[in-house]
Predict the 3D structure of the following.
Amino acid sequence: MEFNNEIEMFEFMEKHFYAGALSDILDKMGYPECTVSPYASIRPLFPQAVCAGRVRTLLNAPVKTGKEDPFNLAIELLDNLKPGEVAVCSSDRLLETGIMGELSATNMRKHGGRGCIVDGYTRDGRKIIQHRFPTFARGTSPINTIERVAVVEYDCPVICGGRRVVSGQIVFAELDGIIFIPRDIEMDVINEAMKLVEVETEIRGKLGEGASMRDMWDEYHVL
């Protein structure tokens, strides 16, 4: 299957792919460190949330901003977000502040952003859920970042859920987990995932017609 553009590809991934399949494919290809650790407890704010797109990283750190603009770098990235991108917010330590919020989500969507992943906490949880903007975080926190935390760099390598992430690589996130696909093998992974989708559709049909799971395993080695 060929796509006319990346947005079409991301929409296909969101509709048909799932984290377990991508994780298995990456394991077989020798890339076992691409799935965010479940120990990080980075979860979707609502179960139906799913997003696929290209990563834009933001690094947060404890900062006493004083009279300086505490949101300068965050605004710079948000206003230059491109269609198909997913903001990935992290820090070098767990911060108690909400480093993402509803207005940021609104701006991301306006620019064609497909979601946001926060290795930390977000604010405005109810409003983000109401807007159905795919957001993944450790939880919610009403604590403001002003005089506490600021984005200190963006488009830099970050650690998210125990995994090293760089801007430009593809991320897929849903209820089961978050997968960061290495850029040099991304199309190989996507092509393998599309094949797996076709196989599982075939298996599903045969099971519905009465085939046994043993027969399907012996034939396809997919479970």
